[in-house]
Structure formats: C-alpha cells, structure tokens
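Hi there, hope your week has been kind to you so far. Do you reckon you could talk me through the fold, stretch by stretch? Thanks so much in advance, here it is.
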Amino acid sequence: MKRSFALLGLLALPLLTFAQATQPKPAPASRALVTTAPAPTGGPMSKKNAAAAQEVEKLERQRFEAQVSKDYTFLEKAFADDLVYTHSNGKQNGKPDYIQTIRDGKSVYDKIEVENINVRAYNDGTAAAVNGQIVIYQPNKPDGTPNVAHIKYVTMQIKDPKKGWQVVLWQSQKQPEK
C-alpha cells in the first residue's frame, strides 16, 4: 500500500508543479501560508486528514531546520529509505547520498526560509502531498556575492506505522531571481 501512495505521488508531481505556478504571491516568512485542501470526495477534510496536515507542516519546517543545523538523526528519520530527491538542477539522490552531501559539506545551508506551505492529507491521515516555496541561503559565491535560491518544491510523505511520517518523494524547482 505504501508503494501505491508513492506511485500516486509520482504521478501527481507534474500536477502539483503546475498547481504551484498558479499559487498566489507568497506571504512574508513571518506570516507563512499553511493551507489544507478538502478531502478527495469534495466534502470537508476529515479530522484525521486535518490533524495529519498540521503535523506534516510542522515536520516540513523541522526538516528544513535540520538541514541547516546538520541534525543527521532527524534527517535519517524524516527521509524514507527509498527516498527519491530530484534537485532543482535535475540531479537525483537517494537518502544516503543526500545526507552524505550534507556531511561532506557539498550541500551547505546557512538558512532556509519558508515562504509558504500547502499540505493536503489523504487516506485517513496516512499520506500527504506538500507544495511550497522556500528561500535557501548558502555561503557566498567565490566573488563574494550572496548565494540565494528561490525554490518551489513538492514532497510526498507517507506515515509508516512504525517510523512515522517520512518523505518518499521530493522535487525542487529553482525560480528566476527576483
């Protein structure tokens, strides 16, 4: 069943990417947008789905903080063993490779600022699709200019009965400089 939701997420990525293009202008980081969508039946979101959406939103923020602080314990737990992460440049990593790039100093984050997050939970709170916008601040470029990336991203998270919420799919898309 976990794999069927991962496949659903993979099929939903192009749609979610398109949906990001139609999102309203992001709110300032101090007032980040968090929304939840109605249940697939069109009715109000179930209590389980609403609670799951709030939990996933909190975990997304913690994940970004863990990437900055190099909290490998949190990252090991947050990413599924079969994670597929497609970077904004098209390169793909699995869980061990991505975490190792942080350990090796190849992926260094000074700050990750959340501009907005949209979480939709499904299947009685066991699956969640996330899209949002972040600003990544990395060490300055060799010429001293700031190294800032505006990113739109999507993730698919599955709630494993033993491991809790885990990111199974993650795709980033770099936006033009403002």
Remarks:
- Helices lie at 2-21, 47-69, 72-78, 95-103.
